[in-house]
Amino acid sequence: MSEKIPYKIYLSESEMPKQWYNLRADMVNKPAPLLNPGTHQPMTAADLAPVFCDDLIKQELDNTTAYFDIPEEILSFYKMYRPSPLVRAYFLEKMLQTPAKIYYKFEGNNTSGSHKLNSAIAQAYYAKKQGLKGVTTETGAGQWGTALSMACSYFDLDCKVYMVKISYEQKPFRREVMRTYGASVVPSPSIETEVGKKILEQHPGTTGSLGCAISEAVEKAVTSEGYRYVLGSVLNQVLLHQSVIGLETKAALDKYGVKADIVIGCAGGGSNLGGLIAPFMGEKIKGEADYRIIAVEPASCPSFTRGKYAYDFCDTGMVCPLAKMYTLGSGFIPASDHAGGLRYHGMSPVLSQLYDDGLMEAVSVKQTDVFEAAEKFARIEGILPAPESAHAIKVAIDKALECKETGEEKTIVFGLTGTGYFDMMAYEKFHDGKMQNYIPTDEEIAENLKQLPKV
Ligand SMILES: *Cc1c(COP(=O)(O)O)cnc(C)c1O
Fold first, then answer.
1. Is 22 a domain residue?
2. Are residues 289 and 427 both part of a single domain?
3. pLDDT digits (tens, 9 = 90+) for 366-408
4. Atom of ligand 1 nearest to the CA of 242
5. 3 Cα: distance to centroid of ligand 1 (angstroms)
6. For residue 233, which atom of ligand 1 is closest to its CA?
7. How far, in Å, is the centroid of ligand 1 from the Cα of 361?
């Protein structure tokens, strides 16, 4: 054990990042633009204005400005729960008997329980600055809705959350956290929107999906005076805000002269991973340093590893712009037994481009293996991880065991995006041996990909 490196590396307030890093500025091949679903022309700021806040549109479309100042109000909010610790997993290393050095960046230290607050507070700030009354959004399991309701209550904004119906019914706790912070939470599909009514007509008894809730939230925003829509992942602006994770990680490692070899993160829509890897990938692109960067996704929703890089709809109702991304098709819904999060059909356009350029790798993992890793980690490192985060744990452990085979002392850094207290039903399934590993067949995937828009 090295004496020099503490268990937890914290940055002082003065060492905390004051700017977000926009990786797009350093990408040689830029991510493909969002397209208007009607005309198939790139979305302009004017096209996006009815849907998104003005300053966020600027961030969304800006592929050249490398650094954006973090506004003072956001910096001071960040100080309530940041810097997040970068933890040396000494106990895990010892248990695995690996020569590898393992670090994790823990983002679960706030009431919302995940990294999503980093972008929620930024998006609420820009909505307030624009003088809006409120924002609408969707949430699946509820992490994003929780983070956004906290951010909106801080800035005294109205917050309307369309929550996937099955989660609304089965996960009352997050719903009540959102209501505690003053948000109104509607089960989706609802009869409050035209798209919701249409989906209910076509699929009576449906328990909803993320894609459907997005359609409802967008419709509500564009038809309500003083409201805009906000999204917690996938978009370029969200990756920009989440770069605070990577910048802190890099600063903490640099403080102790540690160079990462492998950087690992779970990937749902790609926001935590995009944020964590940003400064590392920037150096890699510029040829300043080399890193192995690995995205981990569930085998039941394998956008990177089995999807297609193509323009697709971001939502089921097909009201959103088209995004070029690794996708399983907007009609893809992971098997109902899938408990481990990360269930979005597409992937961030930034990460999709980087992956297509061969700058990063992706692996998919089975959910029983994920929960096995989660339990191991909870027992040895003390933190009860979110199932999403446990995807990264699983692969970090795999890589550390590979080092044991080869004797290499690699430095592995992974993102521990959140805690799993609201996911105990999934843990229960695992403990009771009732968790399955449904993996979509090639035919199923091909069938969904037939629905891709012709662009
Ligand atoms: C939402 C969420 C994720 C996945 O979202 P990304 O945008 O891919 O980062 C991962 N972990 C936790 C804890 C989450 O809440």
1. no
2. yes
3. 999 999 999 999 999 999 999 999 999 999 999 999 999 999 9
4. 9
5. 33
6. 7
7. 18
**How much distance in Å is there from the Cα of 388 to the middle of ligand 1?**
6
Q: Domain for residue 2, yes or no?
A: no
Q: How many angstroms does the Cα of residue 1 sit away from the middle of ligand 1? A: 32
Ligand 1 pocket member 188 (CB < 6 A) = no
CATH assignment of the domain containing 186: 3.40.50.1100
- Whether the link from the prior residue into 172 is cis, omega within 30° of 0, is no
- For ligand 1, say whether the CB of 269 is within 6 Å of any of its atoms: yes
Domain that holds residue 143: 32-69+116-229
Report the number of distinct structural domains present in the chain.
2
Q: Is 217 in the pocket of ligand 1 (CB under 6 A)?
A: no
Residue 124, phi-psi category: left (phi > 0), alpha (psi -120 to 50), beta (remainder): alpha
Domain contains 77: no
pTM: 0.97
One DSSP character per residue, 96-163 reads: HT-SSEEEEEE---STT-BTTHHHHHHHHHHHHHTT-SEEEEEESSSHHHHHHHHHHHHTT-EEEEEE
Are residue 186 and residue 275 in the same domain, yes or no? no
Question: Do residue 121 and residue 92 come from a single domain?
Answer: no
Residue-wise pLDDT tens digits, 165-220: 988 988 889 999 999 999 999 999 999 999 999 999 998 888 888 888 999 999 99
Residue 76 lies in a domain: no
Cα(114) to centroid of ligand 1, in Å?
Answer: 7
Q: Do residues 362 and 304 lie in contact, with contact meaning Cβ atoms separated by under 8 Å?
A: yes
